[in-house]
Design brief:
Bound molecules: guanosine-5'-monophosphate
Number of helices: 8
Distance between the termini: 39 Å
Structural class: alpha/beta
Order of helices and strands: EHEEEHEEHEHEHHEHH
Number of strands: 9
Largest sheet: 5 strands, parallel
Shape: elongated
Amino acid sequence: MNPLLVVLCSPSGGGKTTIARELLARRQDVGFSVSATTRPPRENERQGVDYHFLTREEFLRRRDRGEFLEWAEYLGHLYGTLQSEVDRLLAGGRHVILDIEIEGAGQVRARRGDVVAIFVLPPSVGELVDRLQGRASERPRELAQRLARAAREVQEAERFDYVVLNDDREQAVASVSGIIDAAAHRAVHQPQLAETMERLRRALDAKAQQLAP
Ligand code: 5GP
Protein backbone atom coordinates (compact mmCIF):
# COMPACT_ATOMS: atom_id res chain seq x y z
CA MET A 1 0.00 0.00 0.00
CA ASN A 2 1.24 3.46 -0.81
CA PRO A 3 2.15 5.52 2.28
CA LEU A 4 -0.01 8.62 2.79
CA LEU A 5 0.56 12.07 4.15
CA VAL A 6 -2.17 12.62 6.75
CA VAL A 7 -2.89 16.05 8.21
CA LEU A 8 -4.59 15.90 11.58
CA CYS A 9 -5.93 19.28 12.53
CA SER A 10 -7.96 20.54 15.48
CA PRO A 11 -7.94 23.46 17.86
CA SER A 12 -5.33 23.16 20.57
CA GLY A 13 -6.81 20.88 23.25
CA GLY A 14 -9.07 19.17 20.70
CA GLY A 15 -7.38 15.84 21.26
CA LYS A 16 -5.48 15.37 18.01
CA THR A 17 -2.12 14.71 19.66
CA THR A 18 -3.65 11.98 21.84
CA ILE A 19 -5.25 10.40 18.78
CA ALA A 20 -1.97 10.56 16.87
CA ARG A 21 -0.01 9.01 19.75
CA GLU A 22 -2.60 6.23 20.13
CA LEU A 23 -2.40 5.40 16.44
CA LEU A 24 1.34 5.33 16.66
CA ALA A 25 1.21 2.87 19.54
CA ARG A 26 -1.26 0.62 17.73
CA ARG A 27 -0.12 0.66 14.14
CA GLN A 28 3.31 -0.22 12.83
CA ASP A 29 2.52 1.36 9.47
CA VAL A 30 2.05 4.85 10.94
CA GLY A 31 4.77 7.35 11.77
CA PHE A 32 4.59 10.71 13.51
CA SER A 33 6.34 13.73 12.10
CA VAL A 34 8.10 15.46 14.99
CA SER A 35 7.73 19.20 14.38
CA ALA A 36 10.20 21.97 15.08
CA THR A 37 9.14 24.81 17.36
CA THR A 38 10.49 27.85 19.11
CA ARG A 39 8.07 27.35 22.02
CA PRO A 40 9.86 26.44 25.25
CA PRO A 41 9.34 22.80 26.28
CA ARG A 42 6.64 21.95 28.83
CA GLU A 43 7.75 19.98 31.86
CA ASN A 44 6.94 16.56 30.42
CA GLU A 45 8.21 17.22 26.91
CA ARG A 46 11.39 15.77 25.49
CA GLN A 47 13.69 17.13 22.83
CA GLY A 48 13.32 15.20 19.57
CA VAL A 49 10.34 13.21 20.83
CA ASP A 50 7.58 15.78 21.28
CA TYR A 51 9.26 18.52 19.28
CA HIS A 52 12.62 19.58 17.98
CA PHE A 53 12.98 22.65 20.20
CA LEU A 54 14.90 25.34 18.34
CA THR A 55 15.90 28.91 19.01
CA ARG A 56 14.13 31.48 16.84
CA GLU A 57 17.40 32.14 14.98
CA GLU A 58 17.89 28.47 14.21
CA PHE A 59 14.27 28.08 13.11
CA LEU A 60 14.49 31.08 10.76
CA ARG A 61 17.82 29.91 9.38
CA ARG A 62 16.35 26.50 8.55
CA ARG A 63 13.21 28.10 7.13
CA ASP A 64 15.33 30.27 4.86
CA ARG A 65 17.21 27.19 3.68
CA GLY A 66 13.81 25.77 2.61
CA GLU A 67 13.85 22.93 5.13
CA PHE A 68 10.16 23.21 6.07
CA LEU A 69 7.25 21.65 4.20
CA GLU A 70 5.09 24.21 6.05
CA TRP A 71 5.44 26.56 8.96
CA ALA A 72 3.25 28.98 10.92
CA GLU A 73 3.27 31.33 13.86
CA TYR A 74 1.00 30.34 16.73
CA LEU A 75 0.62 32.64 19.75
CA GLY A 76 4.04 34.18 19.25
CA HIS A 77 5.96 30.96 18.60
CA LEU A 78 7.01 29.37 15.33
CA TYR A 79 6.07 25.81 14.42
CA GLY A 80 7.07 23.88 11.32
CA THR A 81 7.16 20.48 9.66
CA LEU A 82 10.61 19.42 8.54
CA GLN A 83 10.60 18.04 5.00
CA SER A 84 13.40 15.63 5.99
CA GLU A 85 11.20 14.15 8.72
CA VAL A 86 8.35 13.53 6.28
CA ASP A 87 10.65 12.08 3.59
CA ARG A 88 12.31 9.71 6.06
CA LEU A 89 8.99 8.29 7.26
CA LEU A 90 7.47 7.98 3.78
CA ALA A 91 10.63 6.30 2.50
CA GLY A 92 10.21 3.76 5.30
CA GLY A 93 6.77 2.96 3.89
CA ARG A 94 4.79 4.47 6.74
CA HIS A 95 1.80 6.78 6.64
CA VAL A 96 2.94 10.09 8.08
CA ILE A 97 0.76 11.98 10.54
CA LEU A 98 1.18 15.73 10.79
CA ASP A 99 -0.32 17.14 13.99
CA ILE A 100 -0.51 20.78 12.95
CA GLU A 101 -2.62 23.92 13.20
CA ILE A 102 -4.85 25.22 10.46
CA GLU A 103 -2.58 27.64 8.63
CA GLY A 104 0.12 25.02 8.15
CA ALA A 105 -2.53 22.51 7.10
CA GLY A 106 -3.55 24.90 4.32
CA GLN A 107 0.05 25.17 3.12
CA VAL A 108 0.49 21.39 3.00
CA ARG A 109 -2.77 20.99 1.11
CA ALA A 110 -1.72 23.64 -1.40
CA ARG A 111 1.64 21.98 -1.99
CA ARG A 112 0.60 18.34 -1.95
CA GLY A 113 -2.62 17.41 -3.72
CA ASP A 114 -2.45 13.86 -2.36
CA VAL A 115 -2.71 14.79 1.32
CA VAL A 116 -5.53 13.32 3.43
CA ALA A 117 -6.87 16.13 5.61
CA ILE A 118 -8.77 15.24 8.78
CA PHE A 119 -10.28 17.76 11.18
CA VAL A 120 -10.94 16.67 14.76
CA LEU A 121 -13.76 18.58 16.43
CA PRO A 122 -13.82 18.89 20.21
CA PRO A 123 -17.19 17.75 21.61
CA SER A 124 -17.71 20.84 23.75
CA VAL A 125 -16.07 24.01 25.01
CA GLY A 126 -16.04 22.53 28.51
CA GLU A 127 -13.88 19.59 27.44
CA LEU A 128 -11.53 21.81 25.48
CA VAL A 129 -11.04 24.11 28.47
CA ASP A 130 -10.54 21.11 30.78
CA ARG A 131 -7.84 19.70 28.52
CA LEU A 132 -6.06 23.03 28.20
CA GLN A 133 -6.26 23.68 31.93
CA GLY A 134 -4.85 20.22 32.55
CA ARG A 135 -1.60 21.47 31.05
CA ALA A 136 0.09 23.18 33.94
CA SER A 137 1.91 25.49 31.56
CA GLU A 138 -1.25 27.17 30.32
CA ARG A 139 -1.71 30.53 32.04
CA PRO A 140 -5.12 32.32 31.92
CA ARG A 141 -3.99 34.75 29.24
CA GLU A 142 -2.62 32.02 27.02
CA LEU A 143 -5.73 29.94 27.64
CA ALA A 144 -7.92 32.81 26.44
CA GLN A 145 -5.73 33.25 23.35
CA ARG A 146 -5.93 29.55 22.52
CA LEU A 147 -9.73 29.62 22.87
CA ALA A 148 -10.03 32.70 20.64
CA ARG A 149 -7.94 30.94 18.04
CA ALA A 150 -10.05 27.77 18.43
CA ALA A 151 -13.19 29.79 17.63
CA ARG A 152 -11.67 30.73 14.27
CA GLU A 153 -10.27 27.28 13.59
CA VAL A 154 -13.50 25.28 14.04
CA GLN A 155 -15.06 27.34 11.26
CA GLU A 156 -12.63 25.71 8.83
CA ALA A 157 -13.68 22.13 9.61
CA GLU A 158 -16.00 21.68 6.66
CA ARG A 159 -13.20 22.43 4.21
CA PHE A 160 -11.39 19.26 5.25
CA ASP A 161 -11.77 15.85 3.58
CA TYR A 162 -12.96 14.21 6.79
CA VAL A 163 -14.32 15.48 10.11
CA VAL A 164 -14.23 13.40 13.29
CA LEU A 165 -16.09 14.40 16.43
CA ASN A 166 -13.90 13.56 19.41
CA ASP A 167 -16.62 12.82 21.96
CA ASP A 168 -15.25 9.35 22.67
CA ARG A 169 -11.50 8.88 22.47
CA GLU A 170 -11.61 5.20 21.53
CA GLN A 171 -14.16 5.82 18.79
CA ALA A 172 -12.22 8.81 17.46
CA VAL A 173 -9.01 6.76 17.24
CA ALA A 174 -10.92 3.99 15.42
CA SER A 175 -12.46 6.52 13.03
CA VAL A 176 -9.13 8.14 12.12
CA SER A 177 -7.56 4.70 11.71
CA GLY A 178 -10.43 3.66 9.42
CA ILE A 179 -10.11 6.84 7.38
CA ILE A 180 -6.41 6.14 6.81
CA ASP A 181 -7.18 2.61 5.61
CA ALA A 182 -9.98 3.76 3.33
CA ALA A 183 -7.94 6.63 1.89
CA ALA A 184 -5.02 4.31 1.17
CA HIS A 185 -7.37 2.19 -0.96
CA ARG A 186 -8.52 5.11 -3.09
CA ALA A 187 -7.55 4.55 -6.71
CA VAL A 188 -5.80 7.93 -6.88
CA HIS A 189 -3.54 6.90 -3.99
CA GLN A 190 -2.39 3.74 -5.77
CA PRO A 191 0.01 4.77 -8.54
CA GLN A 192 0.99 1.14 -9.08
CA LEU A 193 -2.63 0.25 -9.88
CA ALA A 194 -2.29 0.68 -13.66
CA GLU A 195 0.55 -1.84 -13.72
CA THR A 196 -1.41 -4.36 -11.65
CA MET A 197 -4.46 -3.96 -13.87
CA GLU A 198 -2.41 -4.41 -17.03
CA ARG A 199 -0.76 -7.54 -15.64
CA LEU A 200 -4.17 -8.99 -14.76
CA ARG A 201 -5.63 -8.09 -18.13
CA ARG A 202 -2.81 -9.86 -19.96
CA ALA A 203 -3.13 -12.95 -17.80
CA LEU A 204 -6.91 -13.03 -18.31
CA ASP A 205 -6.53 -12.64 -22.09
CA ALA A 206 -4.00 -15.44 -22.19
CA LYS A 207 -6.23 -17.70 -20.13
CA ALA A 208 -9.27 -16.89 -22.27
CA GLN A 209 -7.33 -17.75 -25.45
CA GLN A 210 -6.04 -20.94 -23.92
CA LEU A 211 -9.57 -22.08 -23.02
CA ALA A 212 -11.20 -20.93 -26.26
CA PRO A 213 -12.55 -23.92 -28.22
P1 5GP B 1 1.31 23.34 21.28
O1 5GP B 1 2.02 24.58 21.70
O2 5GP B 1 0.02 23.14 22.06
O3 5GP B 1 2.18 22.12 21.30
O4 5GP B 1 0.88 23.53 19.75
C1 5GP B 1 0.15 24.64 19.35
C2 5GP B 1 -0.46 24.37 17.98
O5 5GP B 1 0.58 24.25 17.00
C3 5GP B 1 -1.25 23.06 17.93
O6 5GP B 1 -2.45 23.27 17.21
C4 5GP B 1 -0.32 22.14 17.18
O7 5GP B 1 -1.01 21.13 16.47
C5 5GP B 1 0.33 23.11 16.24
N1 5GP B 1 1.58 22.59 15.65
C6 5GP B 1 2.44 21.68 16.17
N2 5GP B 1 3.42 21.42 15.31
C7 5GP B 1 3.18 22.16 14.21
C8 5GP B 1 3.83 22.31 12.94
O8 5GP B 1 4.84 21.70 12.64
N3 5GP B 1 3.28 23.17 12.07
C9 5GP B 1 2.15 23.87 12.33
N4 5GP B 1 1.69 24.65 11.38
N5 5GP B 1 1.51 23.76 13.50
C10 5GP B 1 2.01 22.91 14.43
